[in-house]
Amino acid sequence: MPDVDRRIDDIQYANYSIPTLQHGQRLLVQRDRAVGSAFEYEHSETEFVDAHAAKKYSLPDLEFNAALSGEQLLQLGKLNESLRKLVADRNVSDTQLKRVLDVQQFADYKESLTAEMHSSEITYGSGMPDELHTYKQLLKDADFQHNKFEKMSVDKRLGRKRFQHHTYERAKSSVDKLYELALEQLDATCSSADPMLLHAIETWMDRELDFDSGTDRKIGIDAETIPRIRGSKSKNALDSGLPKLSKRLKRKECQLLALKDAAWKLAFKQPVQSESTDDVQVVRNAILNRLLQLRNDDLY
Questions:
Q1: To 10 degrees, the CA torsion angle through 187, 193, 198, 202?
Q2: 238 and 207 Cβ atoms separated by less than 8 Å
Q3: Phi-psi region of 258 (alpha: psi -120 to 50; beta: other; left: phi over 0)
Q4: What is the pLDDT of residues 116-126, one digit of tens each?
Q5: Cα–Cα distance between 63 and 60 in angstroms, integer?
Q6: Which residues of the chain are under the pLDDT cut of 70?
Q7: At 107, phi and psi to the nearest 5?
Q8: Is 194 exposed, middle or buried (0-12, 13-18, 19+ CB in 10 A)?
Q9: 46-75 per-position pLDDT tens digit
Q10: Are 124 and 242 contacting, i.e. CB atoms less than 8 angstroms apart?
Q11: Most distant CA pair in the chain, distance
């Protein structure tokens, strides 16, 4: 069981965690300040702010079900075999899964494949809001012209090419106008968005959209300060991390969970869970007090 739990945790981390990326690189808790190092230092997982937290996995504190029939032992062996394959990162087909799970267990597994079980799926599973497509294209056009201007600047500085002053300034002005057009479009989109859409847009951006901050505003109309959409490959993106949300990994996770649950219920004596009368009364009293509070709030 510990190996199964570890594998499930690894898959969930890989599929649903949101990496903290700045300028395309994972962010360190404390960056190495060494200059001119003679060797390339490889950072350990714990040095990253989005590091996969180490966990301990232990055997279940339950009594093994010694009263299993021969048929049940055979079934448990098949479940364990499938689990071992998945822990070893080998594939288990749905046809094979159907043979080792009962009808209800297999139906629950199929339903879990499309269910949103993690917050990352709810937040990012539907993809980027449609309202950002225009902004994304405008930003792409601005970046394209910016890269051309940057190349022009390098050629001019190194003396590879000579440009007339007005040509150089016109190219720079063109880049500024394109970034300004993109930012104006994003501002208009945010201004007309309802609260739910605005929250979705802000969630998909790599920085705070402080349009109303006046002279203290940090976003601007250049490559470094203009907001970028999460998932961007730009070196200027402040936080471009997105969960992987791989269907392949989700399928492996659901298979492991379904097989583990089936094996767990078969192999161990399940504890009897029952609420005492006192516990039920505590819950009822809490609900009653809450209703009374709501009524009093309405009166005043």
A1: -30
A2: yes
A3: alpha
A4: 989 999 999 99
A5: 9
A6: 30-42, 154-168, 272-281, 283-300
A7: -65, -40
A8: exposed
A9: 777 777 787 888 877 778 888 889 999 999
A10: yes
A11: 91
Tokens of 277: 């009368």
Which residue's structure tokens are 């339950």?
62
What pLDDT is attached to residue 24? 72
Q: Tokens 């379904």 sit at which residue?
A: 258
Beta carbons of 56 and 4 less than 8 angstroms apart: no
